[in-house]
Q: What sequence folds into this?
């Protein structure tokens, strides 16, 4: 009976650890986006369509999907926007983690690729 070499076993172990790390990292990132959705729903849904599905009512602000798909929308741009005063928008008092969660949620609404419905 032959045994795999130490290098082979190390490579397999490293690959398994890398896959496990990626899988566990997806959970907290998704939780962060869900938290961002919850914050946005609570604070922003009176004036904005928050998700991809249409909502009944008249909205003052743009839909978050439209904001996400603007070429100028980046994490830093959203951070500046959320910390700035706007005449038709109430001043938000978000801590850094709340703001990052809302930003992550908005950015998650970007289309996966050009030309998708």
A:
């Amino acid at each position: 009976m032959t045994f795999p070499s130490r290098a082979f076993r190390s490579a397999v172990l490293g690959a398994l650890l890398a896959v496990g790390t990626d899988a566990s990292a997806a959970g907290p990132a998704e939780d962060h986006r869900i938290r961002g959705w919850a914050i946005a729903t609570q604070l922003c849904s009176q004036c904005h369509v928050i998700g991809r599905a249409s909502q009944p009512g008249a909205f003052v602000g743009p839909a978050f999907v439209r904001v996400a798909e603007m070429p100028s929308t980046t994490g830093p741009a959203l951070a500046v926007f959320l910390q700035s005063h706007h005449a038709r928008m109430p001043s938000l008092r978000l801590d850094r983690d709340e703001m990052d969660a809302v930003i992550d949620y908005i950015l998650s609404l970007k289309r996966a690729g050009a030309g998708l419905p």
Observations:
- The radius of gyration is 20 Å.
- Residues 55 and 108 are 19 Å apart (CA to CA).
